[in-house]
């Protein structure tokens, strides 16, 4: 009996040390009510499993030692014992029901997306995210979010960028983070433009698939300002690992200032779309857009990755009729990896990237003005 007691003490001490010494090996608690509920549910079931393990293996160990054959013990017979049959049937049922009730409550709360203060549409696009603010004070704001250019440069073969400058955030930073206000219930509508993606921020306590042709719903409410990072959690292609998610929660005052700044940018973009741009202006902006939107598939040097992603350098489309080139980018190519950018890029960005594609890497074709994009839409 002394041996059994010692083994049980060691098991309990070991379990406690693992659970409390370093939470890097455990599920994080997160910053939302949902994430805290999930964490509490996880810990309840963890300790239930630990208790079951200690009881079952403790009983087995005790029986092996106490009732061993060398002591002359004769095996007991439990055949046709109604009491034992009921005992080892009822106890697991009680345990499962006891775990199912809090689990069901948590799952129902996660799926309840009503009574939202604002709605954001999240679209997965290889390999970036598009955020559209559907309602609320940020209504009308829309932008792409992709791996930060410095991180993108650092991951390229032959890069001499010092990774230590990024600290723990290497490959987890973006150029345009999603910004939401604290203290408000935010509803998300998640979909994709090409393949299946999954939007996942561990601190929020959930992840949702973004599937082409479908809309999934989720919600969150963050009460404290902060920056929370995640990644695409679906194997969505060769650059899957370079599709981070960054959510910045701002106080209502800071969020209002951000909205004002963004709406100013939207108004400026609308005005800029009406003027005629010079070729150098379009080339400079087009290079930025190409690096963010196109380079992952068609490579920074425009050589592509045939046969899935054809080369733009020297291509007949990039050096041919502008209307055909515009149509390909606006409407995509069904049956290929080329998605439609109609709702992804604004007129200025699309005109700029088309001009860049038509005049970079030895290509020599006409420029494309934002007004031509407007007409083609």
Describe this structure in words.
It is a single chain. This protein is of the alpha+beta class. It folds into three domains: 2-111, Helix Hairpins, CATH 1.10.287.90; 118-271, Cupredoxins -  blue copper proteins (Immunoglobulin-like), CATH 2.60.40; 274-376, Cytochrome Bc1 Complex, Chain D, domain 2 (Orthogonal Bundle), CATH 1.10.760. Helix content is 43%, strand content 15%. The chain is built from nine helices and ten strands. The protein has helices at 2-21, 33-66, 82-111, 149-155, 252-272, 279-298, 322-331, 347-359, 370-376, and strands spanning 118-125, 128-133, 142-145, 178-181, 186-192, 197-201, 206-210, 216-220, 226-232, 244-250. The strands form two sheets. A five-stranded mixed sheet has the order 3-2-1-5-8, with no helix packed on it. The protein has a five-stranded mixed sheet with strand order 4-10-9-6-7. The longest helix is centred in the first third of the chain and has 34 residues, at 33-66. The protein is elongated and about 95 Å long.
